[in-house]
Amino acid sequence: AHDVKTVGRLGGGDRDGKMSEIKKKIQSILPGGDWNPLYDTSHLPPESSDVVIVGGGVLGLSVAYWLKKLEKPRGAIRVLVVERDHTYSRASTVLSVGGIRQQFSVPENVQLSLFSIDFLRNINEYLAVADDPPLDIQFNPSGYLLLASEKGAAIMENNVKVQRQEGAKVCLMSPEQLRNKFPWINTEGVALASYGMEHEGWFDPWCLLQGLRRKVQSMGVLFCRGEVTRFMSSSNLMKTASGEEVNLKRIHEVHVKIDQSLEYQPVECAIVINAAGAWSGQVAELAGIGKGPPGTLQGTKLPVELRKRYVYLWHCPQGPGLETPFVIDPSGTYFRREGLGHNYLGGCSPTEEEEPDPGNLEVDHDFFQDRVWPPLAQRVPAFETLKVRSAWAGYYDYNTFDQNGVVGPHPLVINMYFATGFSGHGLQQAPAVGRAVAEMVLEGHFQTINLSSFLFSRFYSGEKVQEHNII
Ligand SMILES: Cc1cc2nc3c(=O)[nH]c(=O)nc-3n(C[C@H](O)[C@H](O)[C@H](O)COP(=O)(O)OP(=O)(O)OC[C@H]3O[C@@H](n4cnc5c(N)ncnc54)[C@H](O)[C@@H]3O)c2cc1C
């Protein structure tokens, strides 16, 4: 699932090869020297596009899909996706572990995941392309099993109530019920467990990304290999209701630095979508967001940062069998069984003090020994004998304010819309978030799921989305 070598499937290499063959043939027929009859400009962006999406990860592509799906009349809007790395070597989407669950505590998060699971389970109703084989995202249904200590039991009970109210099927288990169902778990320190009865599991993020890409291309979305480095805007001084003087901005041009070149191309646009994942805080800064006196709306930053997370793969001959769900321990450690045999995947989020340096994607193997393994072996005694086989690191698009998504327009840079900040759960919510952002752009309000509490303005007003189930 994480084999970046498969990138060739994007067709870039094939196309370049074919182009150079054709060029050679033409040059051999034509008289003259270095004249290049077919300078390939397909990598250049158009001069203008109604919507420019910064970032071609799962969130950017989902917004592109829903804009084209919901536009009226068909073909009404021109959408351009600008992605600087077509190998996606550092993108969160392809480095994630592909899990989807309904077990959140905030109703909006449950609703987002409920819609997304419907999308994923009926993927060909959404992403099928004429004459292409059906998409298989390798969905592996398996409930998440969340464990709570005495301290967390009441919160867990309350969360499950919310999940059921929203239509998710989740059951609660006492330690005794837990022992009966999963005898390999040591229930010491566990007061309560919740288990997803349906619509949970994991899938291949790379397949979803490719499926979205194939589909949006068939719908006429344009792609450009380059980096957004600058926004040109016009501005107006205004006063807010509270008397704060603010600079209301509208972006009218995006500068795209072309891949492997010093050249940049301006693209005129009406709407910009910031779907730059872990880098979306930087993209917001390019648009002037957060540049103002601290404590003011003008000075409020998009609090999304790079945070490095490790995933380890291990083998354990005596490990639990086929029925293993995705287990999340109160210590923050998680694991699940991978594929056939006794291979497992898991990790844990470091504490604030332990945050690794995000400067590179190297894996800290001591972190597994010191922080991940002890609670794993305590919870599943068979894991005493595990052997780590491989590991990788990826970036969370980490929202330092409340670890939840940021969706919808910026209050001052009025034509920049966000689809970012989902920290550890952006992949699974992407289908629903893309739809929400497209509704906002096309209709001016959320139509299917009300995500008003996920708007940027909360960073100024201080109202956090209080999600208890952040992993
Ligand atoms: C280890 C790990 C495990 C995870 N597990 C899960 C999970 O089980 N379930 C789940 O739902 N989520 C999970 N996540 C989170 C999930 O992967 C992310 O929330 C989600 O993929 C974010 O998607 P994105 O499109 O915003 O970001 P990305 O996939 O990072 O895409 C953003 C893109 O923007 C591009 N970009 C940035 N700046 C610019 C610029 N200036 N110009 C042009 N392009 C630019 C980047 O190159 C990048 O490709 C996990 C993440 C990690 C790291």
Word description of this protein:
The chain is an alpha+beta fold and 471 residues long. It is built from twelve helices and 18 strands. The chain has helices at residues 12-29, 58-70, 92-95, 107-121, 123-127, 150-165, 175-181, 205-218, 280-286, 365-379, 426-443, 458-461; strands at 48-54, 79-83, 99-100, 140-141, 144-148, 170-173, 192-196, 201-202, 222-239, 245-258, 264-274, 304-315, 326-328, 333-338, 343-348, 387-399, 406-409, 416-420. The strands form three sheets. An eight-stranded mixed β-sheet has the order 6-7-5-13-14-15-12-16. The protein has a five-stranded mixed β-barrel with strand order 1-2-9-10-11. A hairpin with a 5-residue loop joins strand 9 and strand 10. It is globular and about 70 Å long. The two termini are 21 Å apart. The model is unreliable at 1-12 (pLDDT under 50). It binds flavin-adenine dinucleotide. Flavin-adenine dinucleotide is lined by residues 54-60, 82-85, 88, 91-93, 95-99, 227-228, 275-279, 283, 309, 311, 394-397, 420, 422, 424-428.
